[in-house]
Design a protein that fits this description.
Radius of gyration: 24 Å
Structural class: alpha/beta
Largest sheet: 6 strands, mixed
Oligomer: single chain
Helix content: 40-55%
Length: 512
């Protein structure tokens, strides 16, 4: 009896609740490759077993159900931090916390269900499964504004395989993770000779990619004349951030950090986090003048809110030497049920409002990606918090910038896993574009990330402080920055076509 036959026998003789419980646990184990745990080998083993379970399905709808169960377990663990935003104001939002985690995980699991069910319908082969797995991750990053957090490929961010994102982005990492898992399954299962042989080949290529990446990844060390960036981290807990008595403490803390003596060379730009100024832009002129006076001739980037008529925006501004606004960017990719609620005025009648939104429809979306001027530091494309989760928010620019500039308020994400996963996605965005990233976070983790995804300087989570760091140079435009997801999607659809094609060839009569 082969290992695959033994596995199938054990699976089919177990009770339904045992099967589904085991599958949900496997999904949870697969999520432990994400930051901050970083147990990516465990993720690949769990994914291999999940694929083995998928192969036991006799019908497409059974495969879809298996995908849904495994996906729910995966997302409950990976997105466990989702509870924490609802506990900032427990009286108002606490009742939503368990529903948010379970319902969001269940919703996202249906993309796994789609991938599993469609793969079975198309023929059920390994290549077909890989194609539908990529399609599922693509759809959940797009539909209903998208949610590209905790993609399967993100478990490889902590490995040298991150480098290959410069060629195929996050979807290539998805393809690599599932390929390694499927290869492990076939190698151990020993169900057929050809899949086992192919598995050895796939694992050998993965090992080559893993080891070669460290040699191929550019050094990207900042030169002696590199501009210096100062990151300011006030560490304002979300439940205290807007407290009338405490918000001045955090504001003055940022003033103090901006005025501090240089740690090395004089900073060329100072970056404050998202909504760092407790004023609307219309009322902030005295505050901006004070900030400019302590910063000297250095531009300061900071986040605040602003009104335009009846619309309110989550904005980033660049201030000049006199406190004047020299550049402005409005966040355009908003958080559903966070910064806005669909049908907001109607939902407000039932007591449902976004966590960070104003009354009714909440924040308004800005016009889209743009490039801003930071003087000596160069040109930057800005991102505000949630926008850094999506690679598409760095496309459509009229010119290639010198860096990615992110400001964020990760206090919403708590201190367990959310801020670490958000930082990991920042590293992924830097590699995809071949651009350094400057990241200022309210409670952390603020960091300077080079174009190869390395964290060059940082301020730990939950600490107040500042850091001066030289800005690494940009690398040449990557293949992914020029092509986006198109090559991987073409490959995925080609893989999906293999199932029906192979099935048709098997059914064709042999002619002499």
């Amino acid at each position: 009896m082969t290992a695959a036959q033994a596995f199938a026998k054990r699976w089919h003789t177990a009770r339904a609740w045992q099967r589904f419980s085991a599958l949900a646990v496997l999904g949870g184990l697969a999520a432990l490759g994400h930051a901050p745990w970083g147990a990516w080998p465990l993720s690949l083993i769990a994914l291999a077993l999940i694929y083995g379970v998928y192969r036991q399905a006799s019908r497409a709808r059974d495969a879809a159900l298996l995908g849904c169960v495994a996906g729910t377990g995966y997302f409950v663990v990976a997105l466990s931090w989702i509870i924490e935003p609802f506990l900032v104001d427990p009286v108002r939002h606490g009742w939503m916390a368990p529903f948010a985690v379970v319902l969001l995980s269940f919703y996202l699991a249906w993309y796994w269900a789609l991938a599993f069910g469609l793969a079975h319908r198309l023929g059920g082969g390994s290549a077909t499964f890989l194609g539908t797995a990529v399609l599922g991750e693509t759809l959940r990053a797009i539909l209903f504004t998208g949610f590209a957090w905790a993609q399967v490929g993100h478990v490889l961010i902590e490995t040298s395989l991150l480098y290959w994102a410069s060629w195929g982005g996050a979807l290539l990492l998805v393809l690599m993770a599932w390929s390694a898992a499927i290869a492990l399954w076939h190698l151990v299962a020993r169900d057929r000779l050809m899949p086992a042989f192919a598995s050895v080949l796939v694992l050998a290529l993965m090992a080559l990619a893993y080891t070669s990446a460290s040699f191929l990844t550019p050094d990207n060390t900042p030169g002696p004349d590199a501009p210096v960036v100062r990151l300011v981290q006030p560490n304002a807990p979300q439940d205290e951030k807007w407290d009338p008595e405490k918000m001045w403490v955090f504001y003055n803390r940022q003033i103090e950090f901006t005025a501090a003596e240089p740690q090395a060379a004089q900073p060329d730009v100072v970056v404050w986090p998202e909504t760092a100024v407790p004023f609307l832009l219309e009322d902030a002129e005295p505050a901006l003048m004070r900030i400019a006076s302590v910063a000297g001739q250095v531009p300061v980037v900071l986040g605040l809110r602003r009104y335009e008529g009846q619309r309110i925006f989550n904005s980033l501004v660049v201030t000049g030497s006199q406190g004047e606004v020299t550049d402005l960017y409005d966040k355009h990719h908003l958080v559903p049920f966070g910064e806005f609620v669909p049908f907001g005025d109607l939902m407000a009648r039932f007591g449902i409002a976004g966590l960070a939104a104003e009354n009714g429809q909440g924040f308004s979306a800005g016009p889209g990606p743009q490039v801003i001027d930071l003087g000596k530091v160069g040109q930057a494309t800005p991102l505000i918090c949630y926008e850094g989760v999506f690679s598409r928010n760095l496309r459509g620019l009229s010119e290639r910038p010198d860096m990615i500039l992110m400001i964020t308020n990760d206090a919403w994400f708590g201190e367990i896993s959310g801020p670490y996963q958000h930082l990991a996605q920042g590293r992924l965005r830097a590699v995809e574009q071949g651009l350094p990233m400057v990241r200022a976070a309210n409670t952390g983790i603020s960091a300077v990330i080079d174009a190869a995804g390395r964290v060059r300087a940082s301020i730990p989570l939950g600490e107040a402080g500042f850091v001066d760091a030289p800005l690494p140079p940009p690398l040449p435009a990557t293949f992914y920055s020029r092509t986006g997801d198109v090559p991987i999607l073409v490959l995925a659809f080609a893989m999906m076509a293999l199932g029906p094609l192979t099935r048709r060839l098997r059914r064709s009569p042999v002619r002499n």
